[in-house]
Amino acid sequence: MALITLKNIYKDYYLGDIDVPVLKGISLDIAGGEMVALMGASGSGKSTLMNILGCLDRPTSGEYWLDGEEVSRLSSDRRAMIRNRKIGFVFQNFNLLARTSALDNVAMPLAYTAGQLSNREARQRAETMLTRVGLADRMEHVPAQLSGGQQQRVAIARALINHPPVLFADEPTGNLDSHTSEEVLAMFQELNRTEKITIILVTHDSHVAEHAQRVIHISDGVVVDGVFGPAGGEA
Amino acid sequence: MKLYAVVGNALRTLARNPMRAMLTTLGIVIGVGSVIAMMEIGSGSSEALKKSIANMGANMLMVFPGMTNTGGVSGGMGSAKNLTPDDCAAIIKECPAIRAAAPLVWVRAQAVRGNRNWVPQQIMGTTADYLEVRGNRIEQGVSISQRDILNCNRVCLIGKTVAQNLFDNESPVNQEIRLKSITFRVIGVLAPKGANMVGQDQDDVILAPWTTVKYRISSTTSSASTQGESSKNSTTGSTRGILYHSATPDLYPARSSTQAEDSPISLRLASVNMILASAVSPEAIPAAIDQITILLRERHRLRPDSDDDFIIRDMTEMTNTLSSTTKLMTNLLLCVAMISLMVGGVGIMNIMLVSVTERTREIGLRMAVGARSRDILTQFLVEAIVLCLIGGLIGILLGHGGAMLVAMTLHWPVATSIPAILAAFLVSASVGIIFGYYPAWKASRLDPIEALRYE
Ligand SMILES: Nc1ncnc2c1ncn2[C@@H]1O[C@H](COP(=O)(O)OP(=O)(O)OP(=O)(O)O)[C@@H](O)[C@H]1O
Ligand SMILES: [Mg+2]
User: Fold this and answer.
1) Which atom of ligand 1 is nearest to the CA of B449?
2) pLDDT of B121-136, one tens digit each?
């Protein structure tokens, strides 16, 4: 059974009376441990799809199975819980809390985890995470004191703090130069390889897409290529 | 999310912008500060009022004889002569709500010492209990003893005003003064009490054993004063007997003073002008009144359907009148303070709304990593409450400091009021909840995607 299954996902936006269909029947499977790149022209609906995958938005119709659970019709509190425990999110613009140390930024999602860790445990876990992304010596730095690549690594550490099975990244290297992009992508690959974290990233850059095992192409709200995994699904 | 973590978060957020937090909460600071200052000054003056009432006698009850009513002519309060020293003794013995009681008889006379003379406002015969009821102390010398009362000893205690007028700076103790040509030995001087609430000088007083006053002075004049004119009256310089006629015609001819001295009326038959009693506590006053009423009705053998033949007064009426003015003032000021708290609350709401807008992306992010809308609601609500509580705390300190300043510079009485401080805390927390709720609710309703995209 695939980790992620989309069945006939539709998403319409309503601008007043006008109905704007953005996703027009997307179906795909992503197995656990895959690293997938999502490509498509601007406005093709990649971010819209990512928001649905990340449980931030609901599809207008269709089914979304994540880890054996149909999540598109869950209550908002349940979906918040799923975002907290099962999903990591990395943004193009990092979205770190300003004037807050790297450590506190990384530990922030733990505040919303049921059965909370003690302050000390949370801190320890955040330290481990930051060490993993190579920022052991930058823990007390605030975002303004970090380079773009470092900020994105803090964001990755934050996304992984609850050991989610899947990581979504919407243009994670969009704001980075080619060198730091390479660093961040290498980190994704490493996480994917050693921890079997499923990674789905959106990109415009075919160099970036090359780091993935599979590339899904979207055009105008439908998948045009890459519905099936390279090995017909490893799971 | 655990509460202490939320509070810690809120504090950290506020600390990031301390100047703004200060300005935001300024309204609360001023509101709470003025409430506290008002309350402390207000309760200080009512405290002072209570003190001056207590100064007249703590929890004091006055028992007067009833009035005679002969042929439709009322004799006025205290005209009956049915209150006896035995009644007083019984009250002490049988009323558990009574701490002390003293019989009182009074006369008006001129006090003479050498070539000086003075007419004290009060010359009263009583027992040592009087001092207890009135909260008086002996400054110099000793009090009246039981022996003095039994033997009708000619001893007396004098107040500061009398002492000054008759003795200047000499020590009056063991000196002699004359009242109606009877020589009294001064055995003690009362500690000064100053004027009471109605402006009467409480130090212009001579106290003597009631037996002495009754049988040695009063028997000469009280018969005189009840009987109308008497030659004795004019000689003592008192004109009361001439001016005021008694309401009750006496059945028996007057006894001469020698007659009276030779055969004092048995104590049991003596009547007193008033019994002054003190309840064990202010709360016990109603109980004390009931107990005295029952006891005296029984002792006076009154039938159940007949009216009391005595009147009991306490100080509540006077206290109420005087404290209602202070209360009105305090309430008015409290209203003003409440309005300023409202204004402060609106300030909080305004800044919280700005803060929610400013932090839209943070809200979106928190939601994206798993915050439920209620977590966001709590976060902003707690922030508003913490802000208000900090403002409240500063306000309490400032208000208290202001009250102290007033106390020191203007010498107004102030009293620290714990309930006011607690109320101020509660009120600032409520202001935080009321005015912080809407912004927090707005924050919690944000859509995470739009919030994340917000520029
Ligand atoms: N909230 C919205 N309301 C209305 N239309 C929307 C909304 N969000 C997105 N759209 C529309 O949906 C379409 C897809 O948007 P989306 O952000 O998914 O594109 P994208 O593939 O991520 O593009 P880019 O590569 O530029 O990020 C666009 O035409 C956009 O105008
Ligand atoms: Mg996009």
Assistant:
1) 1
2) 888 899 988 888 888 8
